[in-house]
Specification:
heterodimer, A: 325 residues, mainly alpha, MetI-like fold, two-stranded antiparallel ribbon, 15 helices, 2% strand, B: 456 residues, alpha+beta, D-Maltodextrin-Binding Protein, domain 2, 2 domains, three-stranded antiparallel beta sheet, 15 strands, globular
């Protein structure tokens, strides 16, 4: 029997209602994404094939900008500075893991500690830059605190001027800022570990360190690897700390800072766009490599790592050949 | 299954559409320009257009006076033009942001024209204010050149600056410097005397602010050579402009002064953490000896503390054939959006005419007024007797040449202060000597000149 459903009834019917709901909720975020991310991104890819400024004529030059990116001395030199930030991100990871493991269990005032350590992440990047600019100024915060510890002002280096350590100073601000966020993520992951495993560990006589290595680590390895991927891609494209603290001077100018200088000071917008696209490709390659390593050594989720699978197959093959180990 | 295919088709087709739309990227923007036939010299303030109605938006870099001085100007102006409302918007990082805003076409009605707009693009963004020959009867002609194209004027200078060195008279006296230094060597000696006999920092570079380093670029042409054509024949089209001339003049002498000052420890200890706002107070109360800045800074330094009378201004210490010169040039120019409505453009013209001729803005800011016949302000009376050199405009057809060569070389003269920044870095911790750096700059400049077709 065919019933003519009114429009209202049709909209309210289960299947359509669900789809309409999904569509309506997605509409605004997707629209924002397209307008503010995808459209400018594709336009920028277009820009990278031209020799252009912001105002004025554009001249199509094809791949010349890309060739220039690879042949210029300063573009890839700047990527070397990312090594400082990558090392800093490992330090940050280690600290976050340590604090997360300590704070996951019953510690007096753990809420206060978690709040205090997470707080830097909430502060805007530019504000962090300004704070640390004054922090590192000669005779200001850091120098004064070190003087209380007994150092002489004459012995202390110029934190931002001395080219041998200024990159470390700037990378340290990054650690300060993001450690809290990593820690909170790890606390969440550690809490998802089955509590009965700890009891089993106690029965077997494991001390805290062994519990950490054998119970906690394997269960949160996905989060750790995710954190590492984010840190490494973040290190390749770091911009705020060096730009705000030193403006990229005295050898702290990372890839992104140089790109910004080219675009806004020399008006070489095409070249800067090409640099951005090259950076994107580099990040994608880095992510793929990391994912590959992860799959090989650690395995994803419940699948075993490829290394384990190969070892097992080898063992079975050898056993099959009829020999004892 | 069908959903999956659909899901894959949608982004792919969206991407295809967007890439095809890039084809439109190459074309110039087609905007609606309003028909304008009024020029600024035709307006008599207080008589013409007194009942015009308009709501104007004014983008300005002077964030420090938006709520005070400028509101006073609006009130004064509305006594003559009661139906014109003006809304100021102060932008902190003005030079960076304004270029991006201009590309939209509807950024407001009046702005300060940035240096990034090429001469041949002026007509696409700004209203014609008049013919240069006509306007030169009221305003100093050599100040109108910066934003004119083919004898049509698009920008009117808000004031004119002199480029030189601002100093604290008391600190110099205490150090025993009786006469103002006239050559780079005398200047370095004076700085050394300040270091030996007083507690003040002799020369404060304000390195960390980075825009302050462009002040060094401003003195390398007219002030360092006495030649109003140097900017064109010597710099833009000249061979190896940064080389050592051997007689203590020219760009090399200017940058070498900075290099030597930093190397001999006559500047602040840590350039990376200098503080611009704090430095104003320090210059005022004698903790800093001098700074290289334009004359626009005089008022700010005077107001930063109690010792306004100690602030003095001198030209950059270079003597050419026994004479001293000071580079002068127009400061930011007012420009009117050519896409605004006709009434808005006319009202804007009345307002900027009033600002230049009657508001006292230039004098209040310690700059020179561009109106023919106006006097020097009090703070700059010391420059009486020193010849002001204003750069001549570029020749026909070569208006963009300096910008093109400057951009291609990435030396950022008058744009980014990259040269002065490099000098400080190398003097502090680098290994390059002044000659090596000058050679590198010459190389980059020559390469940029070649790619832009400059022949000697």
């Amino acid at each position: 029997m065919k019933e003519k459903k009114s429009l209202k009834a049709w909209v309210q019917s289960g299947k359509v209602n669900r789809k309409l709901c999904i569509f309506a909720f997605m509409l605004v975020p997707v629209a924002l994404l397209v307008v503010f991310t995808y459209i400018p991104f594709f336009k920028m890819i277009g820009f990278s094939f031209y020799d252009m400024k912001y105002i004025g004529d554009r001249e199509f030059v094809g791949l010349q900008n890309y060739i220039e990116v690879f042949t210029r001395k300063d573009c890839f030199q700047a990527l070397k500075l990312s090594l400082y930030y990558i090392v800093a991100s490992f330090v940050q990871l280690a600290l976050a893991l340590y604090f997360a493991s300590v704070l996951s269990f019953k510690v007096k005032g753990s809420g206060v500690f978690k709040g205090l350590m997470f707080f830097p992440y909430l502060v805007c990047g530019i504000a962090v830059g300004f704070i640390f600019k004054f922090f590192y100024t000669r005779g200001f915060v850091l120098d004064t605190v070190l003087q209380w510890c007994g150092f002489n002002l004459e012995q202390l280096p110029y934190w931002l001027k001395d080219t041998s350590i200024n990159n470390i100073s700037v990378a340290a601000t990054s650690v300060w800022r993001y450690m809290g966020q990593g820690m909170v993520m790890f606390i969440g992951a550690i809490m998802s570990v089955d509590a009965s495993l700890y009891e089993a560990g106690d029965i077997d006589g494991a001390n805290s360190f062994q519990k950490f290595i054998y119970i906690i680590l394997p269960n949160i390895k996905t989060i750790i690897v995710l954190n590492m991927i984010l840190s490494i891609t973040g290190s390749l494209s770091v911009f705020e700390p060096p730009y705000v603290i030193t403006g990229g001077d005295f050898g702290t100018g990372t890839y992104f800072v140089i790109m910004n200088k080219l675009a806004h000071e020399s008006q070489k917008v095409g070249l800067a766009s090409a640099m951005a696209v090259v950076l994107l490709i580099l990040i994608m390659i880095a992510t793929l490599i990391q994912k590959g390593i992860e799959k090989y050594y650690f395995g994803i989720g419940d699948t075993e790592s490829i290394r384990e699978i190969r070892k097992r197959k080898k063992r079975m093959a050898m056993a099959g050949k009829g020999g004892t180990r | 299954m069908k959903n999956k295919v659909l899901k894959r088709m949608l982004p792919a087709s969206l991407a295809a559409v967007m890439i095809m739309s890039l084809g439109a990227c190459g074309q110039k923007k087609q905007v609606e320009k309003q028909e304008m036939d009024v020029t600024i010299d035709q307006i008599t303030l207080g008589e013409d257009y007194t009942d015009i109605e308009a709501d104007l938006k004014f983008l300005t870099h002077k964030t420090d006076v938006v709520d005070t001085t400028f509101q006073g100007y609006i009130e004064e102006f509305q006594k003559m033009y009661p139906n014109v409302n003006i809304e100021y918007e102060g932008i902190t990082a003005y030079a960076d942001d304004i270029t991006t805003r201009l590309t939209t076409g509807d950024w407001g009605d009046i702005c300060m024209i940035p240096t990034t707009v090429d001469k041949d693009e002026l007509g696409n963004y700004f209203t014609v204010l008049g013919e240069k020959a006509t306007l030169a009867k009221t305003y100093e002609e050599n100040m109108l050149n910066n934003y004119s194209y083919q004898d049509t004027v698009y920008g009117l200078p808000s004031m004119a600056n002199v480029q030189g060195v601002i100093y604290n008279k008391k600190v110099f006296e205490d150090a025993g410097v009786k006469e103002l230094p006239k050559t780079p060597d005398e200047f370095l000696e004076a700085l050394q005397a300040i270091k030996d006999k007083t507690d003040a920092i002799p020369l404060y570079t304000n390195f960390a602010a980075s825009w302050t380093m462009t002040a060094w670029d401003a003195v390398i042409d007219g002030g360092a050579t006495g030649d109003p054509d140097f900017a064109n024949t010597g710099l833009t089209k000249g061979k190896d402009p940064f080389a050592d001339r051997g007689d203590g003049t020219g760009p090399y002498a200017v940058y070498n002064t900075l290099y030597e000052a930093v190397k001999r420890g006559l500047t602040e200890e840590d350039p990376t953490t200098t503080d611009w706002e704090g430095s104003k107070g320090k210059l005022n109360n004698g903790e800093i000896g001098c700074m290289v800045l334009g004359s626009w800074s005089v008022i700010q330094m005077q107001q930063a503390g109690d010792h306004a009378d100690d602030i003095g201004y001198m030209t950059f210490p270079i003597t050419v054939d026994g004479k001293q010169y000071a580079a002068a040039g127009p400061d930011y120019n007012y420009g009117i959006n050519c896409n605004s409505s006709k009434d808005n453009q006319i009202a804007a013209m009345c307002y900027i005419k009033w600002l230049v001729e009657e508001s006292g803005f230039a004098q209040g800011e310690g700059g020179l007024s561009v109106v023919i016949g106006d006097e020097y302000p009090e703070a700059l009376k010391a420059l009486d007797g020193i010849e002001l050199v204003v750069n001549n405009p570029a020749e026909e057809g070569e208006e963009n040449l300096f910008n093109d060569v400057n951009n291609d070389s990435e030396l950022g003269v008058n744009v980014s202060g990259a040269i002065a920044t490099e000098v400080v870095e190398e003097a502090v911790s680098g290994t390059k000597t002044m000659e090596e750096m000058a050679d590198e700059w010459n190389e980059k400049w020559t390469a940029a000149q070649e790619s832009n077709g400059v022949e000697y």
